[in-house]
Write a structure and sequence with these properties.
The protein is mostly helical. The protein is built from 10 helices and 3 strands; from the N terminus they run αβααββααααααα. It is globular, with a radius of gyration of 18 Å.
Length: about 220
Amino acid sequence: MMPASETAYQKIRTFILQGQAIPGMQLTEEKLSEISGVSRTPVRDAVRRLENEMLVVRSASKRLFVADWSEGEVDEMFTLRAMLEAHAAARAARRIDDDTLELLHNINTELKDAVNQSPPDITSFLEANRRFHDLILECAQSPRLSKLMPALVEQPVVRQTAHQYTKTQLNQSAVDHDELIAAFTAKDEDWAKSVMTSHIRRAFHSFSMTAVSKPQ
């Protein structure tokens, strides 16, 4: 049986990452106990982990909120993600095998199928995208990267970006993945690194343009 603190962590984390909690929303221990179905003590343990992942933050008065990142913080998050994922792509290019290349191709086909739904199936897109990037990270064979990446890749802002994409932008993501597969097939580290960097930076600018256009 899963420990109560782990249950609380998983359920609260899912609540935040799936967009049920909006940035800046106040979270009380009572509300989090209700969400997770456990008492307040394991909830406190879960909250400490979520604070370390920067999914929740405390105010000066110790009140708890869903993280609401500033423009500068979002820029830094995407910058760090681009650096780390580009490094992972370069490492993967040296180590990837034919079976993994085929699996990447199959995952990207699933992603394209999700985009071609009417309207696009964003949930399936996000799942396929996650699996694609997770597989690259696995191929990189770097325990340090594996510890650093999740905190950046699974931020709610990343999920929000996908929901804000136009169909053209969603298709571009699939095209980027195809080029990454080509770079991996060629075992070209520099090509893979360059494509991954532009892929992540494009996501940042898509997010930024949508954020600017939102009514205040």
